[in-house]
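User: Good morning. I'm curious how threonylcarbamoyladenylate would be positioned relative to this chain. Could you predict the structure with it bound?
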Amino acid sequence: MHTLLLNAAEPGAIEEAARIIRNGGLVGMPTETVYGLAANALDAKAVAKIFEAKGRPQDNPLIVHISAFEQIRRLVKSVPESAEKLAKAYWPGPMTMVLEKSDLIPDIVSAGLPTVGIRFPSHPVAQALITAAGVPIAAPSANRSGLPSTTTAEHVMRDMDGRIDAVLDGGTCGVGVESTIVTLASDPPRLLRPGGITLEQLQAVLGRVDVDKAVLNPLPKDAKPLSPGMKYKHYSPKANIIIIQSDEKTFADFVNSHKAPGVAVLCYTGEEKLVDVPAVCYGGETDYEAQARDLFEALRHLDDIGAKTVYARCPEPKGVGLAVYNRLMRAAGFEVLKLA
Ligand code: TXA
Ligand code: MG
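Assistant: Good morning! Here's the predicted structure, ligand included:
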């Protein structure tokens, strides 16, 4: 299959992408978080192609994207007050709400679960595409399963060229990590995946919000997490990533004494001057927003420079830092070295 590269800024591009979606095809779609692999959420056959193109396990459900709040009503059984409040505060934006699904949602979208994740993205191109398609859009991140999510159209092309109908180029994603997922189908609500809307922001609206174990910890083998995606190896570049917990100087001393071919670092901006091995930076030490924005690009870049062993700095699990921590810990397979 030839994959069309469409520039969202050019006239007719969004309409062309919308036509592909209506006809049951797949389009790489920019959102403010990461690129999505978009299909008509109400067309089970089209959705099946997403799983095929990504190599995604069938038991991992998809998020459904809308372009106006009212569109949620026919997709879920009921809209609780908590959902109205969250939507008012953070939609459109990088937050997905899990609610009991309506019969309109095909089982393949929810992977057989009684619930569905709904998101109203803030990216103008995503909104325009959903509106032009005239249907809700199912979209997982537009990466091959297991690889880091994609934050540019070029990355989508690299993973998906020849496997999907088109990529709609809308520039680089601003948030850089996938949306926050909160389930309102549990009482109290539960954070399933941290993202650009922080736990603290959810708590400000909802009061008590529990944090699912899978957010901070590796899952025991054979566990059945509330969010099926948590059990899969994720965000993994080819290189072996090891998180170093220490201060900056101890980190630099450790790395410099482990210099060898294939050794590289993932560090905070400015620290590249302290180390004697190839360094990829991803934002300042406490600039969690910059870290989130640059993380996946940095992970892909480490593979590009041929890194085999990567010593990484990882932020505190607070604010947007929780999302960065969650992704990087998974990329490292939870391999952490604590240095005094
Ligand atoms: O920012 C995002 O959310 C991006 C963009 C494209 O919108 N999408 C995204 O989709 O990250 P994906 O499929 O890569 O991640 C969705 C996660 C998976 O871990 C999945 O298991 C979980 O959401 N999920 C989806 N539906 C769910 C449900 N009904 N209950 C619990 N978890 C669900
Ligand atoms: Mg994904």
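The two ends are 54 Å apart (CA to CA). DSSP finds eleven helices and 16 strands in the chain.
Let me know if you'd like a different ligand tried.
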